[in-house]
## 1
Amino acid sequence: MENDDINSSKTPILAGISRENPFSVPPNYFDELPENIQILVKNRPVDLPTMSTPFLVPDGYFENLSTRIMTQIENKELNELPQQTPFSVPKGYFDELPSKINQRIYSKPTILQIGLVQKIFRIQTLIP
């Protein structure tokens, strides 16, 4: 069956192909599909695989696991840790901190004249 929409001189192969859908399903296929699936599922024997794990743990392993862990931590690791903190801050650091923060927040910014800023910028770019 030739198609009038396709220019047969430019695409003779396409012009010769039928425009009918080559795929088809039996009548009422989709209406009956859910019921047919249910029948197949109900009639199929259940063959569950046996589940086995390759990992083995001793009897009572999880029952006393937390106790064993805590005992090891208390006996071994805590004794090996240094008794002093490795961090330090200068004396009076936290006493002076609030006033230093407020001073930086509330201090007036330094305003320079544009000419002076340009001169400083030129000097800084010339210095290696």
Note: DSSP finds five helices and no strands in the chain.
## 2
Amino acid sequence: MTMTQRELNGHNLPEGERLDVNAGGFLVGPGTEISDDIPAVGCSVFVLNAETVRILGRDRIDKLVDLALGFRTKLMLSNGEYVVPALASVVLFDFWQKINLSGVISRANGWGEVEHEELRQVVDSDIASLEQRVMEGC
């Protein structure tokens, strides 16, 4: 397996711009290891501080990320299901849990159109809330 060296360059960002860190990688830019001088935007990313990177080593972290990105789960799927990409499922975990549970409740309790409409309204409200969060920068 060939290891990918990921690097995010935070130098010379135009005024008001933020570095998109969703792809992940080793961050280089202005400031010190604790100064928080690089404006960035990312959604559902996990940041390892510089001391942790120094202790573990960049190569080891790159290898872990490569392995995680290459991980595949064998699935058995059914017609009519919807496969949510990993990033979206992390962001929407609580939302999906609520929706999946409502489907189970619906089948078990014989929900009708009124209850389904109420559920759609809850989902619409959650969508509006998420849209607002995205507009504000995650």
Note: The longest helix spans residues 113-135.
## 3
Amino acid sequence: MNALFEFEFGLVFWQFIILVTAFVILGKYAWKPILGFIEKQEKAYAKASKEAKDQQRLAVTLSKQNQQLLQMAEKEKKAILQQALAEKKTLLRQAELEATQVKEDMLQQAQKDMLQEKQEMIKVLKQQIGILTIQVAEKLLQRELDQKNKQDVLLQTLINQASQSPKALCRVK
């Protein structure tokens, strides 16, 4: 047989001793740190997994809270808009009433002003009519006086002539 495949007890013994020594050395210096590292990694993975699940639950909770907040905000927005519309309508009504009141006040004031101007114009017209009447009366009186003066002058002339010649008086009659 081949020398490679022959069984020798000494060789097997030393190989066994080397194997046990290797296992002891590896167990003391390599496997414990490796197993400790693996356990540490498993704990870290477990912790990370737990934290991820917690974060996921927290994210779901926050998402639900956000949805609720959004719904509440939407309700508040609608309420604020409705309130603003109501206030707008109220303000418009008040503005309309105030504008109507101002318009009526302005119309009344304009009517008062127009009435006052009308009365002033009537007063001025009466004064002018009075002045014109006085002027017309003055002219009429002046004419009458002129005519009377003319008649007086004529009569005086006639009297003068009559005193000078009685025949002239007969002619005038």
Note: The radius of gyration is 69 Å.
